[in-house]
Amino acid sequence: MVTACWKNAIKDTSQGIWSGEGTKIRGAFIGLTARHTAAHMSRAVMEGVVFSLRESLEILRSLGVPVEEVRATGGGARSPLWRQLQADIYNTPIRRTTADEGPAYGAALLGGVAAGAYRDVQEAVASCVRLREELTEPDERRSKAYEEHYAVYRSLYAANREAMHRLSELAASSESASQ
């Protein structure tokens, strides 16, 4: 398996999470061989993104937040492959919401709470958020394999951090020299 490792090359965080807009992100494909195709690399990018999302999920779990299901919304949620990758990598079932405009919908609900239309977020969610019946369950065999790959993924940032920082510095100096 090829592993795509996407990490923040500027701001070092103990969890390795992405630190927002304007951040200079570097990526790497680790483990490429002559047998790997563009399809392998595309899947590796998807897996790398889900591994990165899992880091956020692990922070929630470490804070004692119980995660029994993950809710999926938006364009990516329409993809059975994307939902299955998430279920397998998180080892947690994925359920789609009926509304595909998740971020905007959530912002509207928070606005409703702020305006007094709902007492709190829990009431807003209970009143408005609906779920589809379909549930994407993790595959036990794949989840176990992804657990091992996730451990390798986590080790890659520390192993490559300095090189990624240096590449960012070189890119910045190269950009300023060409202007």
UniProtKB/TrEMBL annotation:
This protein's UniProt keywords: Carbohydrate metabolism, Kinase, Transferase, Xylose metabolism
A GO BP entry: D-xylose metabolic process
One Pfam family of this chain: FGGY_C
Residues annotated as signal peptide: none
A GO MF label: kinase activity
InterPro entries for the chain: ATPase_NBD, Carb_kinase_FGGY_CS, FGGY_C, FGGY_Carb_Kinase
Domain Carbohydrate kinase FGGY C-terminal span(s) in chain numbering: 25-115
UniProt entry tagged with the keyword Iron-sulfur: no
Family according to the record: Belongs to the FGGY kinase family.
The protein's name: Carbohydrate kinase, FGGY
